[in-house]
Amino acid sequence: MTTDDFKTISDTIPRQPGVYRFLDKEGAILYVGKAKDLRSRVSSYFGDRRDRAHKTRVMVKNAHRLEFTIVETEADALLLENTLIKKYQPRYNVMLRDDKSYSYICIKNERFPRVFITRRVEKDGSTYFGPYTSKARIKVILELIKRLFPLRTCHFNLSRENIEAGKVRACLEYHIKNCMAPCEGLESEEEYNGKINQVKNILKGNFGAVKSHFKGVMEKYAENLEFEKAHAIKEKLSAFEDYQAKSTVVSNTIRDVDVFSIASDEKEAYINYIKVVNGAIIHTHTQELVKNLDDDDEKGLLEYAIPIIRERFNSIATEVILPYSVQLEEGLQAVAPRIGDKRKLLELSEKNAKYYLLQKQKERASQARRQTSAERILRTLQKDLQMSELPLHLECFDNSNIHGAHPVASCVVFKNAKPSKKDYRHFNIKTVEGPNDFASMEEVVFRRYRRLLDEGESLPQLIIIDGGKGQLGAAVASLKNLGILDKVTVIGIAKRLEEIFFPGDSIPLYIDKKSESLKLIQQARNEAHRFAITFHRTKRSQHFTSTELTKVPGIGEKTAQKLLSHFGSVKRLRNASAAEIAEVSSLKAAEKVKAYFKEAGEEEE
């Protein structure tokens, strides 16, 4: 993707948390990233930042398109990014060295339940909260729960029979007041379960009473001038307030499901698909459908698309979450949830479908505006130059040299009033000796259109020559020689007064300085000049560099060019070892080069 490609879609990228994916031409994922603000993060890959790593520049260059998925929070984006990286292992992502998942808080399904951290979610009747992206946050929460509600941490079987038989004795945790010793019957099961219910409320986010308790403790510490303790309680409270108990990206209550939603307008419909495996989103996809008939309703489109999408992504889930009841194939269970985790997944899918529809509507509107603007400019240009057809394809030529040294020329191409950089061409002048702009222009125009004719390519409607009557006359001579002068419109533009010259007409045309058509001609002229100057500087630099290398005794021009081509610069060649230089040329040449640079270095000192 280029910066120009990004500019066309930048306004359609949301400023919301989510995950973005760079894909190549075959649709393979090159890179997965997360963002708090998708537009801001993606825009950082484009522009003129020089500190960007080479690997990142290569990835962006190889990317063909960009996809993104909106989520509710930055933590959800981190979770989804982790899941997608593990599944697809994109080429440019840093691979994880293990397969660890995020942490959960488990309330064990047992008599006098323990509360602890785990990475494994098992179907044993226990209650799990999370996932958590920060283990430090879990520790803060568990420490606070431990202070508020002393619970057991031992692994003993606290059955009624074992307690009555006195098989378990109170440990150190009881004596330091971290546990109330239910193992010895000092705390009833009812009292203990009452604390567990409060812990569940806290982990669900229902901790209004706990917050009141904390505030009371803080005020008490403040009254006693124990500000450090008050601040510590405030930090614990802040950790609770920042805590998020549920994630729509990973769930321990949902296993394998498919989620579908749809958003449509008069012409098109967009179906968002979320694939959930083992409670985690592993794939998101938005499918575009073109409506053929006015009676193509959303329900019918869903019924048509669901089996196709499921087959494409090899889904074996037997449960499908939908916004409303839809007729599905036998063996599939359709669910239209109203509350709970499944409803949150459906809302996430609906949010992505609606945003995709909005994005496409914005793209169409923006494209229509660009087309309208380009058409208006080209029609104005057609009228100003009295052309018989619209100049959808125009080309501009410019020469560059210094006193005849290293003469080069450029040809830039504009299509639909926009630069088509892949079609730009530069030329080394081959048949002209000395500073002769007219002859150089005649040569490059002839070579350009001789080749287009030989390859069967279409000719431009308009040819612009940077220069006055002389350069224009030289170009016309080549066009006559090729027999295509009557098939194109050719003009020259003189820099000083921005005069437009036509072949055979000594009186120039003056276009209004504010006219969009003149601005387009000037843009093409300036682009041709820039492209020619850049190429000329490159040639000049290569010449100067190779000239320096030919000063080395016994090193000819061919060897100098070979060394320069391999090492890229004289500086790198200077720092290379004799063995490295010998791999390109010969050991004898390498010794001569090293001796020359050594002597030059001593002279500088």
Compile the SSE list and pairings.
Layout (H helix, E strand, L loop, with lengths): L2 H7 L8 E6 L5 E7 L2 H6 L10 H9 L2 E6 L3 H15 L14 E5 L7 E4 L8 E6 L2 H14 L11 H5 L7 H4 L13 H16 L3 H16 L3 H16 L14 E8 L3 E10 L2 E11 L7 H15 L6 E3 L11 E3 L4 H45 L8 E10 L2 E11 L2 E2 L5 E4 L8 H18 L7 E5 L2 H14 L6 E6 L4 E3 L14 H34 L7 H11 L2 H6 L2 H7 L2 H18 L1
Parallel strand pairs: 7-10, 10-11, 12-16, 16-17
Antiparallel strand pairs: 1-2, 1-3, 4-5, 4-6, 7-8, 8-9, 12-13, 13-14, 13-15, 17-18
Helix pairs in contact: 9-10, 12-15, 13-14, 15-16, 18-19
Q: Would you mind describing this structure in some detail?
A:
The protein is built from 19 helices and 18 strands. The chain is of the alpha+beta class and 605 residues long. The strands form four sheets. Strands 12, 13, 14, 15, 16, 17 and 18 form a seven-stranded mixed β-sheet that branches. Strands 9-8-7-10-11 form a five-stranded mixed β-sheet. Helix 12 crosses helix 15.
Quick one: CATH superfamily of the largest domain? UvrC, RNAse H endonuclease domain
Termini, distance in Å?
A: 48 Å
Radius of gyration: 36 Å
How many distinct helices?
Answer: 19
Let me know the average pLDDT: 82
Number of domains: 5
- Quickly name the level 1 CATH class of the largest domain: Alpha Beta
The level of helicity is 40-55%
Instruction: Report the CATH topology name of the largest domain.
Output: Nucleotidyltransferase, domain 5
Low-confidence stretches: none
Largest sheet report? 7 strands, mixed
The portion of residues forming beta strands comes to 15-25%
- Strand tally, please? 18
Choose one word for the global shape.
Answer: elongated
CATH architecture title of the largest domain: 2-Layer Sandwich
| Helix-and-strand structural type | alpha+beta
